Amino acid sequence: MTTRRPDAAGGATPRRRSASASARPTAAGAAPDAAAPAPRSLAEDLRQRSDDSIAALLAARPDLVHPVPADLGALATRATTGPSAARALDRLDVFALQVTTALAALGEPADLRQLQEGLPDVDPALVAGVVDRLRVLALLWGRDHDLHLVRPVREALGTYPAGLGPAMAEGRRGVAPYADDPALVERTLTEAPDGAREALERLLWTSPVGRVEGADRPVSVESARTPVEWLLARHLLEPIAADTVIVPREVALPLRGGVLVPDLVPHPPSVDHTDRTPNLVDRTAGQQAFSFVRLVEDLLEAWSTAPPAVLRSGGLAVRDLTRTALGLDVDEEGAALVIETAYAAGLLAADGELDEVWCPTPAYDSWLTRSTAERWTLLAQTWLLMTRTPVLVAGRDDGGGRVNALARDLDRALTPEARRAVLDELVALEPGQSPSHHALLERLRWRRPRRTSPLWQAVVEAVPEEAERLGITGLGSLSTHGRMLLTSTLPDEASNEARAAARMPGRASVPAEVAAAVDAVLPEPLDHVLLQADLTAVAPGPLEGALAREIALMADVESTGGATVYRFTEATIRRALDAGRSATDILAMLSARSRTPVPQPLEYLVNDAARRHGALRVGVATAYLRCDDPATVTAALADRKLAALRLTRVADTVIVSASPIDLVLERLREAGYAPSAENAEGAVVVRRRDSRRTPTRPRPPRLSGEPPAPTEALLSAAVRALRAGETAAAHRPPAMPESGGSGRLPRSTTSETMAELRGALDRQKAIWIGYADSTGTATERVVEPLRLDGGFLTAYDLRTAEVRTFTVARITGVAAVADKAP
């Protein structure tokens, strides 16, 4: 119990006990202290473990920490729930699962030496290592000669683990001789008729249960006529129903040669790989990283002026996905990855208007101000953690309908775990080693044998391709910056403040070391193009952002590859003129940015388009058209393509229309004219589609899957809280008549409460109190009173290991603690 020393002011200062001091064993391993009494339950086993062992359990099973259990008994209860035990089993590899199955086949309790004898083809030390690992995970408890699997594990492994039936010697008298003398099984079978041994061996390794009509009919040695009757008569098979027989464990094990589980695989399969130089891998991954950032930028720039509509059911229409893939020059799978990553990063969202469209968020503008390396790091972190699953796009849902990009139901909780599982296999390889796709998946199947769902398979098979597209890997090998990304602190592993900032993309921080590593291998953007006489420009590499936007404004991409080819046409030059560029601006920019002279055909194209551009002007009448050339006005009036505008001539050089200006401009351009807009003073107005943005949006929420790994600080605090809870539980008051014999604190009046508190303060003894908080929720606490003054109790709370102040009016009852050590 915590002791107090009076201070100079007449109060008391608690001397707190450290968590390590309250731990009984001092060893860091998971096995119970050999000097302590044999545990009778998992809770007792946990109480005999050291703080390091408890911390190792919480680190290996993060779901047990959220929230921290009240004490070790509550921790044992939570660890033995079905969902929690299933999560732990899902993390076991093939060999660990085989050892666990063998333990289940041995029954309760199991013996380590017997287990090692039943797995004769592997090193006994490997088996003992798995047993220790199962103890750490709290899937197994007890001493080496008294091992117990927790109930959910036994239930998960089925009725007949390892294909072995139950031991039946105690309940079936005829089976008892085989338990006393296992060699009797083989001696008996030497006299078996044809087909008897074969019938028995068919039930040895898969399932011990077989179907036999009339299995429960009386059969004697003399009356047996068939091979199955011969086996039943000699109790090598035992009936368990009218039409069902089973092979007793006492019979099966000798026939198996004592082997509990066959075909043990103690080590992961080797990985076939191709060796590449790390420098080549990093440069290739850097090129891919740069391309992915540019794809996201191109996507959001396009959608800021021509946003696609949000489907009524949510998501992106198939035609819009196809159009986007063509615009980005990628396949639909690549387009879906770009779209979903931008959405999960908070750079893209629905605008929330009546006719909703998908367009960039204000965070996109903040993202653009970052360096290319920082932009990539934010996208790569997003991809690692997001529950959005692009591989499902274009597939079929449970109802048979097509799954659309940006659909609401595209989140899957297991997706981040699957991505990390694949990439962890790449981390285990040497730099530059590029495994084959088949070998990588085979190794992962050894790591996670219980993960067999179609969704898991689809995600893990897509991860290598997605990682390559993002630039985390290059040529199939993990890059240096990809390796640093996986070992850095991700938002889910950071503090609450960092996680909150990460949900707002404009404030999200990225690891500086990762950004520096990727920046070192990003291709140097080019500041020039090569103009050619066939009205094309060749970019031999990635262009600077400003140059890329200018070239994209005045030319269309014709082909991509090692170099990008842009083509100039009258329509593309007119697009630049509409955006406010003049012929002089266009030619000056091309001359300054080209390593070759501006070809004469391109100069003619620009000047001719500029000469025609703005010759016909549109103003407000609702709209008017004016032109210095009466012939052009006459031609426009006679053009049948413009009949819908209902044009009326008001002068030789002026026409008016009842249609809006935007519609007039659009129809004139479709008819082959090159109009420009002007204001009321007659000055040319640059009219282009405004860039659209959504209101400020946080990142879309992720589905809650596996909880994040606890930090060292959280583990230390959790262990201290568990030890404090044990201390409090040790002082729980005994059952009292006033509380109905339930052990709950009795209700007490204010005067009785004050008297008990003063007595505990005088005796310097801990006391139980029932306390109602501001919400009316009542809790029970064991406290050591320090001061009682003005209706408030200052006391040391043993459960939280803190000095707290309690309002006396909210104390519902008091009781003395039990007289036993904590």
From TrEMBL:
Q: Residues in domain Helicase XPB/Ssl2 N-terminal?
A: 529-651
Query: Do the record's keywords include Disulfide bond?
Result: no
Q: Where is the composition biased (Basic residues)?
A: 689-700
The GO terms describing molecular function are: helicase activity
UniProt KW keywords: ATP-binding, Helicase, Hydrolase, Nucleotide-binding
Q: Where is the WYL domain?
A: 752-814
Q: Where is the composition biased (Low complexity)?
A: 8-41
List the InterPro entries. WYL_dom, XPB/Ssl2_N
Signal peptide per UniProt: none
Report the superkingdom from the record.
Bacteria
Residues covered by region (Disordered): 1-46, 679-710, 726-754
Short name of any one Pfam family annotated for the protein: WYL
User: What protein name is recorded for this chain?
Assistant: Helicase-associated domain-containing protein
Record organism: Longivirga aurantiaca
